[in-house]
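Batch queue: ligand-bound targets. Current item pairs a single chain with flavin-adenine dinucleotide. No template structures supplied; prediction is de novo from sequence plus SMILES. Inputs echoed for audit trail.
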Amino acid sequence: MPPLPPEFSARVLHDVPMARHTSWHAGGPADLFFTPRNAADLAGFVRQLPAAIPLLIVGLGSNLLVRDGGFRGAVIQTHGALGVLERISATRLHVEAGVPCARIARQCIRWGLGPAEFLAGIPGTLGGALAMNAGAWGGETWKHVLEVDVVDRHGTRRTRAVTDYTIAYRSVSGPPDEWFLGARLEFERQPGITTDGMRELLERRKQTQPIGAWSCGSVFANPPGDHAARLIDTAGLKGLRIGDASVSDKHANFIINHGAATATDIEALILEVQRVVAAMHRVVLRPEVRIVGEPA
Ligand SMILES: Cc1cc2nc3c(=O)[nH]c(=O)nc-3n(C[C@H](O)[C@H](O)[C@H](O)COP(=O)(O)OP(=O)(O)OC[C@H]3O[C@@H](n4cnc5c(N)ncnc54)[C@H](O)[C@@H]3O)c2cc1C
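Prediction returned. Tokens below.
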């Protein structure tokens, strides 16, 4: 690989274990790992990166499995970098991609805006939520999007309309090789809104999900008209273990890393759950988590 220009070379890390940057705490090294100073710095880094080098933009790694062989390319982290969250009108916000969803939820309540409580329990960034159309309790990220700022593989930044994307349940498709830098979001005025609703949803989560354990949340998207957790549970798979990874006893759609699971263990468990559910229920579960990188 050609040497990086001096303005980036001192700030780029090499061979960074992605286990440190994913909520599953598993996964091999990224060849290059870069945390930009801001959106312009991110675009500048992308611009000088040779086109042949694969690029992965991550937020908080809460929906990401990086295989144990690692990622042969450059990872750019938005969390801690693209952190602007500002109100631009009575009901509209400008939010950069690295802002945690929980921060958006809390700030909306302070500003008397809603419904944003559903974002409180999603432990990722806005960028990840835009990429996944993250949602919970009937709320969905893209229901609030007015327009997005993106960067392409040449480092060119532009603003795109919602109509440039096809949005569905946990699925977003749009122009290829573009990444989100931020968005304008719209909420409703909810004068007098308190944190009660948010607290209630977080409490409900604690009762039904293994919060605190190392996981990526729901591994599979719900198939139409059903719940992945119900299919996995009724297939008798709760507690199924490969290496140090197991299907959660509390919520069958969660896979837990008990401390020493490898990405290989986790991926093998994902495939096994898929196989058994397909055999028993004739339903092929679609993984919601993104799996990238090279096998060990
Ligand atoms: C305990 C727990 C509970 C969860 N509950 C929910 C839930 O209720 N609902 C839900 O929808 N999800 C849930 N998740 C999953 C996860 O939090 C969401 O998918 C979240 O939106 C991922 O954001 P992230 O920043 O962590 O993305 P990452 O995991 O860092 O990335 C996920 C994908 O998005 C891409 N991406 C990230 N940032 C950008 C960007 N700026 N531009 C383009 N692509 C980008 C990545 O390349 C990757 O493909 C849960 C996860 C955990 C651990």
